[in-house]
Amino acid sequence: MLTRIMAEMGAEVIKIEPPGGDRTRQTPWVKNGRSAYNVQQNRSKKSVCVDLKNPAGVALVKQQLPKVDVLVENFAPGVIQRLGLGYKTVKSINPSIVMCSISSFGQSGPLASKVGFDFVAASYAGVINMMGFPDGPPIMPGLSLGDSLAAITGVGADCMMGVPAWGLPKISSLAGSIFIPTLAASPLWSTNAKSVTPFCARIRLSRSTVWSTVCLLRVLTMPSAWLGAMTFSLTRLKADDLNAKFSLVKS
Asked: Is residue 54 included in any domain, yes or no?
């Protein structure tokens, strides 16, 4: 979403996709071989499939870095370094490049290693708990609030760091999260809202699960709290199957 906004503002954006293409190319709804979701989020971008697990693929990306002003990545913390494209390496090739890394909970801190997406961050921030009715569980949000806020924050940071004429300190490595913008945008009464414990894993799904275009989401009723669950697998999810794991998830 961040790079889509930059493309809409006139930037030339080249998206690196894995071999076979981004899996959102097959995300419902698909018409005439094109995914509406993929078009929505990637319009105006150029794309190229590169195997970043292959040294030849990494070498190809490094060849293009001198021509790049901004590099955006949203791997889990540490992955980009293991691929050989960490900030120190990128900066040694292009000293003026701005590198923006976005993950669920940032690149450092006690939650940095946790995997998650918009729904997980919104659950942890207490946003999900404010939606719904008094006699029922929280309901799913109708938009990706955390993704949108993180993208807008990232675009602003990239633009600020890319304009040295403003006299700002030169900081070329940016680390953002989905959680912090979501929490910061929550209204005053959200400070009293309880977090919906986030849970992200490969689990089974029931027919009552709410469908999203890219994953499956559900708020489960647990013994002592609500549990926000998301999965990318197309199987079944039952609350009873997670009761034994709940204490471990909370910790």
From this structure: no
